[in-house]
Input
Amino acid sequence: MTILPDYAQADKLFQVFKIDVPHETFCQFETYAEFLVEYNQYVNLTAVTDGDSILKKHFLDSILLHEYAKSCFPQSAKILDIGSGAGFPGVPLSLIRPDLQVVLLDSLRKRIVFLEKLREKLHCSYTAVHGRAEELAKDPMYRESFDVVTARAVASLPILAELSLPYVKTGGYWLAMKSHETIEPALQAIQMLGGEWVDTVSYQLPGGDVRNLHLIRKISPCTTKYPRKFAQIKQKSL
Output
């Protein structure tokens, strides 16, 4: 069962953005897409199930995160993908940059089971962790230990800031993938959490979807009072 457009079509799309994806990596994308669509019949992982949309809205979008923030990803960097869901952008990052140490975090066990089964099919080495972001951030093993933290979640930026920045080590980056949401409402939270807004890269996916990629650098340690319990975060963001 072939889900994605063929490699020639996909390569034309990648070349529009001046991205080179080896055929071997694209074959892994195909395996990923096939397993995602099959598994999605039993566990709700994504609303995007046709091959063309999976290629553009999942794979291309994940690759562009790396392309537009390439300087944030040093060799063998440690990456945390918060609310990874079906594995985007964390799994594609692991496939295009096998040197990266990618950790996928999700609060639903059924998604972690999917990600673990997917890892076996793709023969890659990311780690899938079951837990809540606001709780795991208190663990010394994870706190302020990542070079890059990514989040493509639906929460607002001030909430995502409190969930993400405590994981970023000083000098590292939080990369927030949003649609139309601007950075201004989160600037106060970012500052309180030891971060500094660096840049926002805006681009458009084929088909019209708008992306704002916000780059936030961690410039000082985050006080241990953050993140708070999620009920408190949701009730009153920073």
